[in-house]
Structure formats: C-alpha cells, structure tokens
Amino acid sequence: MAYKSDIEIARAAHKLPIQEIGAKLGIPSEHLLPFGHDKAKVSDEFIKAQRGKKDGKLILVTAINPTPAGEGKTTTTVGLADGMNRIGKKTAICIREASLGPCFGMKGGAAGGGYAQVVPMEEMNLHFTGDFHAITSAHNLLSAMIDNHIYWGNELEIDERRVVWRRVLDMNDRALRDIVTSLGGVSNGFARQTGFDITVASEVMAILCLSNDLADLEKRLGDIIVAYRRDRSPIYCRDIKADGAMTVLLQQAMQPNLVQTLENNPAFVHGGPFANIAHGCNSVVSTTTALKLADYVVTEAGFGADLGAEKFMNIKCRKAGIAPAVVVLVATVRAMKMNGGVARADLGAENVAAVEGGCPNLGRHISNLKSFGVPVVVAINHFVTDTDAEVQAIRDYVSTHGSEAILCQHWEKGSEGAVELAQRVTEIADADVAAFAPIYPDEMPLFEKIETIAKRIYHADEVLADKKIRDQLRLWEEAGYGLLPVCMAKTQYSFSTDPELRGAPTGHSVPVREVRLSAGAGFIVVICGEIMTMPGLPRTPAAMSIHLNDDGEIEGLF
What we know:
By secondary structure, the protein is α/β, with parallel strands linked by helices. It has 3 domains: 6-129 and 253-431, P-loop containing nucleotide triphosphate hydrolases (Rossmann fold, 3-Layer(aba) Sandwich), CATH 3.40.50.300; 143-248, Domain 2, N(10)-formyltetrahydrofolate synthetase (2-Layer Sandwich); 446-528, Formyltetrahydrofolate synthetase, domain 3, CATH 3.10.410.10. Helix content is 36%, strand content 19%. It is built from 20 helices and 25 strands. Helix 7 crosses helix 8.
C-alpha cells in the first residue's frame, strides 16, 4: 500500500478560516491578529481578560530517548487531542515552533505526521509568523549594543575578556561556534573571541517562553547578565539600556499563534527552545491561556522524558504554577528493537526478544515520571511493520511497572486511531489522582540539584565537576541565585552523556563541562559531555532535497 507523504496530506487539508477555529475556544475575531487565512496571533488584551477563569486539565506528552527509527511524539500529541475532541472533549493543543536548523539539517519539522498534523505545515516549519526572527533580532541587538558601548568609551568598565553574551542564528552552522570579531582596525572596535549559538538556545528564547506578559518579559530581559567587570561584578542588559528596545522587537512575538489540526481542532504553536540545550517547552503564556479556554490541554516536551519532561516538571511547572494531570509516554516497537540491539536495516523483521531487551529504557522513563507524583500511560505509536506479538511484549512489560500501554494508529487513521488512548487519558485526568511535585526543592544547593537529576533521572553514580565549576556555583549562590532550578544540557539519545549508550545504563558518570547563568530566564544551564549549543549540518542535509516544484509548491519538507 502506498502512503501519502506528510506534506501531501497537509497540502490536501480542508482548513477552516482561523476565525472559526478561534470561535471554538470563545476567542472573538477582533482579538485575532490574522497572518493570512489560516493562522493568527491572540491579543494580549484577550489573554489578560482570561486570568480569573478556572483551568482545564493539563496532559503532558513525552517519549523514550529518541532513536533514528523515530517515535512520533508530536504526532501522538496531535492524534491524542484530535481523539479527545472526537469523543466530545473540548481540547486544545500546545506545541513548540520549529527551528530552521533541524528543518534543513536532519531532524525534520515539528508539525506531527501522517493524519495527525498541525497545519499549515510548510509555513509552521519555515518563517511562520516571524517569532524566531524577532528573537534572533532582539538577541543580536543586545550583542551590537554591548560592543558599541565598549567602542564609545566603555563607561561601565566592561572587561572585554569577560563578555558572556554571544550572538545567535537560527541555523546549524559549525563555522560560527568559535570566532573572532572586530578585526580590521580602529573603526571596527576591539577584537575579541566570541561565537554564535543557535537561536533556540538563546536566553531570549527561554525568557519569552517563561514570561507571563510584556512587563514580565521586559524585567527578565533587563536581568540578563551580559558581561563582567575586572572585579567580577556583573553587567546587566538594563545597564546597557537594551531591554526596552528588545521588548519592542518582541511585542508581537509574545502573542501565541493559533492554528489548527487536519481535523480543524485548535492548536497553539508558540516558542521553541531546544530540549537538549535549553528547557524544551512551548511558552507559558500559550499553555496558561489554553488552560483557560479548553477543558483539556495536550502539550509536549522535547526529546525524551529524561530531558524535556524533567525540565517541564522542574522548570516550567515550577515557574508557571501548573501541573500535569496525566503523562503520556510515547514508545514504538521499532525503537524498542533498536534499544535491544537491532540494526536499523533489520527493524522490519519480527524480533520479540529484541523488543523485550529494549523495554528497560521504557521502564526507566515510567519510574522516573512516576517519581514526580503523576500517573503515566504508554502510547505505542503504531508502524505497519509491527506484529501483534511485539506489541503484546510491550503491553506485558508495561503492566509489570504499574502502568498500561495502548496501541495508537493516529498516523494512519487520524482521531479514529487514538480513541482508546483519548478515553483512558480523559478518565485518568478526571480522576484527579495526580500529586505532582518537583524532585528537588528551591532551597537545595545548586550542585546537589545537579546530582539529584543525575542520580534519580539518569541513574548515574556521580557527577564529575572540577573546582572551577563548583566555585562558580557557590559564587552564584552567594549572589542570590541559589534558588534557581538547573537546566541540564546533554545528549538526547541516552540517559548518560554518551549518545551510543542505549537502554537503561547504570554505573556511569555525568561530566559537567561548563555552567552558565541565565539570570533573566531564571535557571542555571549545566552543559554535560560533548553537547553543542550551535549544532552542525549532517553530511547530507535535508536542505539538499528541499525545492519548489513546477507548480510553485514546496517539496522535500518532512
């Protein structure tokens, strides 16, 4: 049987005018700022007017550690929400925007797949409503103003060796990781070593996604530490007087984007920090707004539960005062086989033993999620090569961990294929059995927070950090930043910092290479292993296959 590609399915979608989608959530058309006919931003005025309303139930979708076989986390998020609407539950989706880096690199887009997609798919994966461009511009405005301040006399006495604010670009470009700027003589400023990160790793992205409103945004931007003096005292963004202009650039970007699924159900797509580098969740303002407008909100966290879900619980929920009623953990038969040692070329052949061998990765995620006090349901995202025996092996394994696994066929059948999952998730959410709590208190010392995540979530024996890093953490505690949560930056492919170590490893160590203070976002970034804050393109980037056909339509996006 020949299946249509994601982009073919998306292009054939029957989309409703965005005003009709807004009406499903009670958003008047005058509070929608349209971008064409099928997407719009929701006004700040309308969002503020919803604050006294009761919240709906929050459902978090996360996944096992990603494999090249693909798990379909966003696809399941969309399929579940469509399924819940199908059974009569007023449900909205909240997901992240796509970065151009992975779209043109190797990961692909972020709009779901098959018959469980958010549309317009092409625009979502490209420029969309310009939010990422606004974030890039605001970030680099601050960079320009720092160098300009130094050039015109350096009144703040910035130590040029201790400028910590790098530039950003929404593209994978390894050549920009480590550069020297201001070459060419006196008129170009003072030469110094710096570099670029990808936009989704920008603290401005994290700030936009954690801010409650424009006033909160401007305050957080002002709190960014951009450099230090020779006496190690910090220089803030507000000292450079860039926070006001940055807020102006971000004013429209702060408004959540409303689009729709293939089945014309409402979806908020807003913000997009990476989960291996940053905190991996869509914006607080879109999630909290959706909770006021829908009875149920299905959201996702990036990559596997050891990264995205951990940060969702310990950072986003803590900052936003929200809590999930149930967590859906996505797994596939194919990914279990890869964790069980099967090569990608051999995934099509039945191998129950390999499925069973790979299930400990799934079991580790179940127990980790339950440690936050939330009920967990496993969604088996169905592939046509899966056999009944392989699916049953996952069901049997999950039942031994006090949870249940439900087979889902939303990729092929849309909402019809997710009805069973939708019914069960709704039942659990309505039962109010969750007793959510982060796994560490605010008052815990920073290094102990790092150790808590490493030992309880990654099951590592120890955290390796030299004296310089430990001293830096103590200095931040003395400066009043000790109450902040930590944002672990590590590989998404393993519980460890070794991307090749699959399954559920124990006895490993977590080496901390660097720590960064994101004072505006309100967390400490802990860079572990070989993680890069500016990824590179693969040998054969997806961009090589993306083009316009003879009809002017985009080909090659996936």
